[in-house]
């Protein structure tokens, strides 16, 4: 121990009382710090031993034992401080005594340990034996339990066999009663006539029938080897016949009781009878009997009310909207009735789903089918009903309404409950006969509608023509007014018919391939209708142009006629010109409406038809090709008509030039005086006419059609003017007026937006300068334009001097070919 610690402990021990004063007390502070047992023991010997030197040896030994035990048990001991002075006086015999005591204790411990080990070994042997006993007991208990279970099974089997034997004996006894004589049911046991035991009697009768019929069947398969088998078989046949008779009588009795309870709405009695009847042919007869006795199937007034509700009063013409409303009301009533019956069926029958299946099937096959047969009368494609009677369209609309409403009824009945019945498939079968010829009916209806519409338009046109009279036409007024014009409204009506037909196609089928085939066939009808209608309209407009041309030819006169004849011919020519202009405008309107009609069809195809054709490979492309082919006839008629329009315009231009152009316009006798910079009267009239008549072309045509038409007209105008001017001779002042006319024509054709035509008139204006300058100056005039210079030199006449007139020969004209 440290020195400080030793000093503290020494002080504490010195303060302790003497041995006789009381027990030695230690506290926890004695064990803190660097504790050492050797220091504790040394202090004990040195401080306390002198106090015991005068006492007896036994007392000293006892005190030493106490001190040692305290030291051993506590690990530290307080010793009076004055004992340290006598530590050297410790007697040497003290330690051998302690060792001896410790040896004895150790020996005693070894002895006790040996005894304990022996005892534990004996206990282990006893526990092992006890476990073996428990295992044998458990095995025995298990064996006894298995034996008891086998005995129980044997007892149960024996009891079942006994019960079966007892029941068999009873059944044989009952079978013998039925086997007595054919048709004799009077000697049967009371069981079979007791109304309170009907369920038991029905069960036994069914078991007897099953046994007897099985035996007869077995006898029929196996050839009898002894006469007894044949006798037994004949006996069972008698039993089977009697049992059949009894079961029929019992079933009828139960059905009568069931009907009586049904009229009184005694559901418990009905349920009891239905449960018993379920043993007869799985209760089919009871189910069918219950369904067949429902008022909606046997009451004639109910069926007549259905007809009046949907078709209206007898002799009236039903409309699709009224039929739709009537079917909705009727089918709602049927659904409510079935729902009420479902509640009764659920409370009465053991198998309500089977009864609901029979009920719903009966509703569709009897009540709905009876109504549909009166509503949907198939029409003949050879002799279809007239439009006054509604035509094929009325039948198709009725079919669509009936199909849609009946499908809704099927879904409602499915929601109410119909067992395992395929109500959707059964509903489809009701319309199979109508759907087989649907596409042919739809196409025939569209053709009938088109024919009726065309006849209506012709009648309106004829009536309009008759009301306006023929005076105007006899004087050369508008010929086009007597012809039927193309109407975009009519084409829109064609599209509306087709759209309605397409909606029916998608209604009657859910298969993409079937829908695509139907839609393609129906859309082809629209293409045929629009193509025929627009082509006929364009051809009628062309007829107006042809008639106007005939008028022009009729009033052409020769050069040598009287003044009176010439005046009459001029008046007729004016009328023919007016007719031509009117025909031109009418044809342009027809072309415009034709283009609008085609655009309507294309838009309809993109919005409604295309998506229905895409699921089938090639269907979309085939329809596009059909659309192009269908419109080709109208395009051909339009092209021919536009050519006639150009002919009509050029004929009038030539007439105006011939009538208005004077020789003095280009060869004024007052040459040298101040020139007239105004265009000639002929030029003014022609430009005014072209501006007026081509206004319709600018409005009606667009795109490439407009560009091609105006380019062709510009070329023809250029060529016609060249041919016209070849008839005149020019002096310098006349050349100036010619140049002014060319400028006027060039300004007008600039509105054509045709660069090639503009270039031709510009070159024509340059060439006209040949009539203004002296011949020797022509080289400098055409310098830089070799082609014009060559033509000018080869076609310009020789002049007597710079101021002389050009020759009057028409060969002196500068000729330019049509570009």
TrEMBL record:
Residues 97-194 form the Exocyst complex component Sec10 N-terminal domain. GO terms for cellular component: exocyst. The keyword Lipid metabolism does not apply. Keywords: Coiled coil, Exocytosis, Transport. Residues 200-790 form the Exocyst complex component Sec10-like alpha-helical bundle domain. Pfam families: Sec10_HB, Sec10_N. GO terms for biological process: exocytosis; Golgi to plasma membrane transport. The keyword Repeat does not apply. Belongs to the SEC10 family. PANTHER family: EXOCYST COMPLEX COMPONENT 5, SEC10. This is Exocyst complex component sec10. It comes from Actinidia rufa.
